[in-house]
């Protein structure tokens, strides 16, 4: 039996009405649309004090290994990589806001992966999902999207610090915001024309234009490929601050759960994998692969690894089996060679920009080549908001508080806490307390106690 026939038999390529060539094209398409994470992830986690080069290698390796898990175990064309919401939760909330070291944060991610792994093995995910109401499930992703977009606006210079109003519009006579706006418009134009890899192309072209105009220095920091983040766990710090650590583990766990469920259901519906009773065959294997990838990613040195909704582009290109995920995995391994380019893309030119405006402040980071990607991805994450029942005020207000507090309060934890507390309080005051799961009351009280005792 030839190697092609073995692949066909294992993945069921012919049975799915596909071919090896079509699966290859699908895997390449998926990589092109999600490969922006190679440049974004090291830039974000560097804020937590992590080594840029090590995070880049960890990102590529964890994405490749996670995609292999999904391809071989679940046999689905879903590619995996560090999540765009989890990396900001990791860097800004757990490390910057709560003050955990990045080693402790990796430990938190690892334990959340173990919890997710147990959930997949014992098949109790449906029961856990019942705790959280739909309005909060549909608001969580968009809220993180607004949070990401707000950071992107700051990194682009479109929004800057203001001593009078906290933030204000930047100076559009300066190259940084103009370059960032160009990047946003380019990505949007390419996406409107359904070009695969629009975000990646936008990053490359924006970087090139920035170098040619002198906005982005051509000489970037030297990059040495290494993996200093491997197995860098710190359990003692979690034991010393066990209460905050438990909350962080819970946040990563639920974020991964909602993100994975939404991605698997959405992409599977597009591909026609769902059964007539709206169930996904081999769903347990898909969840197991996702959870195992998170544990592997934490071991290598990156935040939560999860299935990417960009896999839908590969499905649209014809991918129907796990072989496409293996192709995407191979691309991520080859992408490690892009480290020198990533160093140019991820340069922080904030201090020079703020000095030109005469503004002083601690938050002076500026990444005009990466910022457009954050702004566009933040916009794309708003889609689930249409599923919130805004006509029911007891459903709309908790979603609104989740969005507002997370984005404008600049805290993912605070946004989730506000939504949980608001849901329990509003439903109770409206006499509809039966609509609140008993465990939801416990979650709301725990968050309320956190503010009363710790803050």
Key features of this structure:
2 domains, two-stranded antiparallel sheet, mainly alpha, 455 residues, 21 helices, 4 strands, 3% strand
Outline: globular
How many strands in all?
4
How many domains? 2
Strand pairing plus helix content: what structural class?
Answer: mainly alpha
Our count of helices gives 21
Main beta sheet: 2 strands, antiparallel
What's the Cα radius of gyration?
22 Å
- Strand line-up across the major sheet: 1-4
Percent range for β-strand residues: under 5%
The helix/strand series, from N terminus to C terminus, equals: HHHHEHHHHEEHHHHHEHHHHHHHH
Unreliable runs: none
End-to-end gap: 66 Å
Arithmetic mean of pLDDT: 85
Q: Roughly what percent helix?
A: 55-70%
Write up what this structure looks like.
The protein is mostly helical and 455 residues long. Helices cover 66% and strands 3% of the residues. Helix 6 (102-122) crosses helix 12.
